[in-house]
Amino acid sequence: MNRSILIRNCRLLRANGASSYSKRLLSTNFTLFNEAAKPVDSKPVSSFTPPPPPPPSQQPQNSSKPVVSRLRKYTKYAFRATYLSVFLGVGYLGYSIYSEMHPAKQIPQSEKTSVGSKKKTLLILGTGWGAISLLKDLDTSLYNVIVVSPRNYFLFTPLLPSVPTGTIDLKSIVDPVRTIARLTPGEVQYLEAEATDIDTKNKKVTVKHTSQSITPGIVQTTPDDIRKTLDYDYLVIAVGAETNTFNTPGVKEYASYLKEASDAVEVRAKLMQNIEAAQLLPLGSEERNRLMTFTVVGGGPTGVELAAEVKDYIDQDLSKLFPGIEKETTVHLIEALPNVLNSFNKKLIAYSEYVFKKININLSVNTMVQKVDNKNVYAKVKQPNGEFKEIVLPYGVLVWATGNGPRQLIKDLSTQIDAQKTARRGLLVDEFLKLEGTDGVFALGDCTFTKHPPTAQVAHQQGIYLSKLFETMAKVENFEYKIAQEDASPDRDTNKIDRLQRRINRTKQNLVPFVYTHMGALAYVGSERAVADLVWGDWSQISTGGPLTFLFWRTAYVAMCLSIKNKVLICSDWVKISIFGRDCSKE
């Protein structure tokens, strides 16, 4: 039907002519004609257009890949930081060693200062913590510095208990005084002698040549008994103290100490000699058990660390060379107070006692030694009911590591000064460490009696304080000399004098009293465990113990060393024993 109509319309258009409109109509009709001519699909046509097919599904990404990528990135940065740290550390170590081995040229001693005034003489007695800290921190070009001591080296005493067992070599904790003095700005004169008399009124010190040897034998003197008298303007007494025996009978004759380098050598020789001698006796005999008993009197850090070091030495090294020796040997620690490490936190005290029990160190507290003979310690033990029980403790090696007592020089000096006659435990000093009753005399360290504990930490801070004090005093004296010169000048300048006086007043503000800052306390308790009672200012205190504290203990002691040489040698000793162990030689 549609087709016939289209054909008719086309004929009419041809006959009548085709306008533009007709042409468009014709074109449309032809299109419809062609579409109508196409065969019709029997299926109904739907107007719904199906959606495009979905894209091929992507494989789910592994969620661990970003984590692995970040881990690799952080590892790369960590390795780079490690390489950089090692590079900088080696560089700093090399620079420190070079600086120490190649010091700058010193300013020689002279009679005049840089401003023309008389250069004063500073006389230092001693080479311990206080004296050496003062010497290292002082601008020695301001004074003519003289150091007098029978010991021509500085001894790093915190690691002295490690020497008898061979954990640390003695030379690793010894630093010659002349080497230390060579590193100062100004020339320093050292005299190996012992002060025998101090005349504070005339400012003179009498010294006698005496040499303290590292080998046992205590003191070596010259036959000619060389003596000399030294003048001083300022005197610093830092002779330390000797071990206090509390007048216990037999201690001086039969016990060893742990105060000097020779003491450590003597203790090691006795220990190894007794062990070797015991091998000749029957197993389990009374005499053999006595020889294999190592006894320490004194529960402070020195006594505790010595007992712990000896026990480690026996269990870890000698047991390999003397099979079964760890079961035969007894390490005994005696303390008169109710507990050891009395200045530490109570929790650390309990932890130390727990470690002692675990590694089989016999601990006797509330035990007061009455006398000592060549084989036994006679003591009284305070019972819980308050009564005392007498006991006898056999020993092979006895080490007396109790408190400090004044040296004979200090005793003699106390009797000469009225303000010091009441001093029984050490010299009395004021807040500026000036010796009471004297002019120009200072004292520090264990030879003084103050409110601070007699430790290396206190003496070290006192030495640094005195170095600043002397430098300030030198500046004030130089300004005063300039004022005196200006006053005597014909062209006296009042304005210049006023300026100098103002500078003096400002400088004197630095003359402040000594203030001790307690940093804490450390102690090794055995089996690679240590305790630390640390303080930061007035607001924080940390008490910790264990293997990690042992690593901190080692790090802290290395940091405390005064020379890079000692730091390197101590670390190398620890590496050496970790590889080869400790030997069993007597020396």
TrEMBL record:
Gene Ontology molecular function terms on file: NADH dehydrogenase (quinone) (non-electrogenic) activity
E.C. code: 1.6.5.9
Principal EC category: oxidoreductase
Keywords recorded for this protein, A-Z: FAD, Flavoprotein, Membrane, Mitochondrion, NAD, Oxidoreductase, Transit peptide, Transmembrane, Transmembrane helix
Residues of the FAD/NAD(P)-binding domain: 122-463
Transmembrane region(s): 77-98
Catalytic activity: a ubiquinone + NADH + H(+) = a ubiquinol + NAD(+); a quinone + NADH + H(+) = a quinol + NAD(+)
The UniProt record lists the keyword Transmembrane: yes
One of the record's GO cellular component terms: mitochondrion
Domain External alternative NADH-ubiquinone oxidoreductase-like C-terminal: 518-583
Biased composition range(s): Pro residues: 49-58
Highest taxon of the lineage: Eukaryota
Compartmental location: Mitochondrion
GO biological process, one term: energy derivation by oxidation of organic compounds
Signal peptide (from-to): none
Main location: mitochondrion
Region Disordered: start-end pairs: 42-67
Keyword Mitochondrion: yes
Family: Belongs to the NADH dehydrogenase family.
Name the UniProt record assigns to this protein: NADH:ubiquinone reductase (non-electrogenic)
Species, as recorded: Pachysolen tannophilus NRRL Y-2460
